[in-house]
Amino acid sequence: MARRPARGPAAVLVLLGVLGTSACAPGGAEECASWPELSSEQQRTDASQLVVIGTVDERDGDERMLGVDAAAWTVTVDETLKGDAEAGSRIRVVSTPETCGSGDWSDPLDTDTPLVLYLVGDDQGNWATVTPFDGTAPAV
């Protein structure tokens, strides 16, 4: 499904609700999600619980999210811009998958280039990119 413009805090709450319940969904059919467009750095930061500059180290399996297998990655934190993560620590990040899309999506965490990662988490300490499209940006 196509991205839709964010409509203030309500859109972020819907987004967080989708991510929060997706981990609990049984391994059934793929779920189609509508994602708010978080086109500015400020919008991405506001929608995130943790924002870090980091380097993706390696693939770390898969997690079921929104009815599909989503790639998980180990990331070394270089700097924390929002939230609590210690520089030098390693965190596991699930790359929120595009669902019901065109199939042109490629995993933004599958790179050797340092990234700014915009992340949401759950109460078990699991992290995922805030959306499939706006969860990363090149680190400058």
TrEMBL record:
Residues 1-25 form the signal peptide. Keywords: Signal. It comes from the Bacteria. This is Lipoprotein. It comes from Mycetocola reblochoni. The lineage of its organism: Bacteria, Bacillati, Actinomycetota, Actinomycetes, Micrococcales.
